[in-house]
Amino acid sequence: MAIAESELIINPNGTVYHLNLLPEHISDTIITVGDPERVAKVSRHFDEMDVQVAKREFVTHTGYYRGKRLTVISTGMGTDNIDILMNELDALVNIDFQSREENEDKITLNLVRIGTSGSLQNSVPLGSHLASHTSIGLDSLMEFYPLAQSEEETSIATALQRELGLGFRPYCVTGSQKLIQKIAHDMLPGNTLTCPGFYAPQGRTLRGGLRNPNLLKTYNSFRHNEYMLTNFEMETAGYYSMGRILGHEVLSLNAIVADRVNHKFAENAEQVIDDLILKVLDRI
Ligand SMILES: O=P(O)(O)O[C@H]1O[C@H](CO)[C@@H](O)[C@H]1O
Ligand SMILES: O=c1cc[nH]c(=O)[nH]1
């Protein structure tokens, strides 16, 4: 059945609503970053560039790196933007924009996020590169999607709900094993908490206060069998859950720039990110 024009919104020039892209504008191998200015920090290594598009926080560059066609795209901050990004990227490859019907043969995208993140454990030092093997979302995005979770994932999420005294159950999802093996085999393995904010949800207070003054301590000490939280940021669980729902491979990589146990921020944050960008480009 054709998808209505109010659901899949196509701009007058044929591009998808927010990303402002045509299907031929993207590769099926995509690097994503939060900061729009980080896009050029990836694409400056390309040998050739054939697409440069910007709308709102979504800046897209597509080109060639050592003969491989790659797309790099920024998302801004938060899982609400990941809802838009993943749906519109999926539409570009799996929906026919003329008939507005799903394509019979589906394309699986390979997505690698290069983000910044704060450490929750002494075992995750400033400057490290951490691969999210799983992610737990404290945001409400998955209250609205039929996300399938394993018994183990549900049991971890239920334990964290109890520990934090939340009125809803967080969601827990794993990343792509295939991409972990290809790109992150030598990076620190971690379990990344995705928070619906940078300040109070990450236990930071400037003048707004905290409803739970023990939040950071609870994140640090949470255990469920062998499972512990290693770091936090604001998007990974959105990626992993939308990837599972839509059938795409997703890996989130974290440049650790803040140490919340010892209250430090990396002096060389840009270098840590640049090193991670080069590692990903070489392996993707
Ligand atoms: O560096 P990026 O990719 O933006 O990621 C992290 O940094 C932002 C907060 O400073 C949030 O988006 C968080 O997830
Ligand atoms: O502490 C941090 C650092 C980067 N990004 C976050 O979301 N939190």
Automatic annotation (TrEMBL):
User: What superkingdom does the record give?
Assistant: Bacteria
Q: What is its EC number?
A: 2.4.2.3
The record ties this protein, via Gene3D superfamilies, to: Nucleoside phosphorylase domain (3.40.50.1580)
Top enzyme class: transferase
Question: Which GO molecular function terms does the record list?
Answer: purine-nucleoside phosphorylase activity; uridine phosphorylase activity
Mind telling me which residue stretches traverse the membrane in this protein? none
Which InterPro entries does the record associate with it?
A: Nucleoside_phosphorylase_d, Nucleoside_phosphorylase_sf
Q: Which GO terms describe its biological process?
A: purine nucleoside catabolic process
Domain (Nucleoside phosphorylase) ranges:
30-275
Q: Which Pfam families match?
A: PNP_UDP_1 (PF01048)
Spell out the reaction equation it catalyses.
uridine + phosphate = alpha-D-ribose 1-phosphate + uracil
Which SUPFAM superfamilies did the record assign? Answer: Purine and uridine phosphorylases
One GO cellular-component annotation of the UniProt record comes to: cytosol
Tell me what this protein is called: Uridine phosphorylase
Q: What organism, scientifically named, is this protein from? A: Pontibacter akesuensis
